[in-house]
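ugh ok so i messed up the first submission bc i forgot one of the chains. this is the corrected input, ALL of the components this time, i swear. 226 residues overall. if the numbers dont match what u have on ur side tell me asap before i send this to the collaborators (the ones from the other lab, u know who)
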Amino acid sequence: TQLLEQSPQFLSIQEGENLTVYCNSSSVFSSLQWYRQEPGEGPVLLVTVVTGGEVKKLKRLTFQFGDARKDSSLHITAAQPGDTGLYLCAGERERANSKLTFGKGITLSVRP
Amino acid sequence: DAGITQSPRHKVTETGTPVTLRCHQTENHRYMYWYRQDPGHGLRLIHYSYGVKDTDKGEVSDGYSVSRSKTEDFLLTLESATSSQTSVYFCAISEGDSGTDTQYFGPGTRLTVL
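and heres the new structure output, hopefully the right one now
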């Protein structure tokens, strides 16, 4: 059983569209991170959320941590081809001593 | 970019042979990690280190061993490679011991076991 479920697994949209993707769990996390990975490269951190209900914005990307700290969402406004990539969420369970658990990822393709 | 290098970047080997992958950092970060990434499984932690000669197992440690004799180097060894260990291996580093600390990833090593 995957601890962090990400949905949808694949998403192909047109440039300019908005989208929301999700990272869900039945477990509580003390923090949750979102990474983006491009082909042939390692993941790169986008954001870390720590407080339940927290919302963070990074240009056109909006990240929200659920009130119960079990889930998170990523909303992209006016998607661009440069947003194409694999989006991974990763959470630290309480008392996990810096070990992260990763979801399987969401493959996003933004067509020009 | 965080100073992390992995070597080799690509390797093809045969079942039963030993393989060692190297991760080198120039950031003097305390924590180092080895992950494998496979389609349908995402990133899974193999082993990690919280200091020189201090290591611990991750969720998929069977068939792998690690060593850290210097702060900057973390070695992953497959004692006898199997086809199920064909994967892309990523090394990561972080400065602190909190899950809120950024993990910086290396460029990956693509390993094929025939």
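quick check: Chain A touches chain B through 25 residues (CB under 8 Å). that seems consistent at least. The longest strand of chain A covers residues 29-37.
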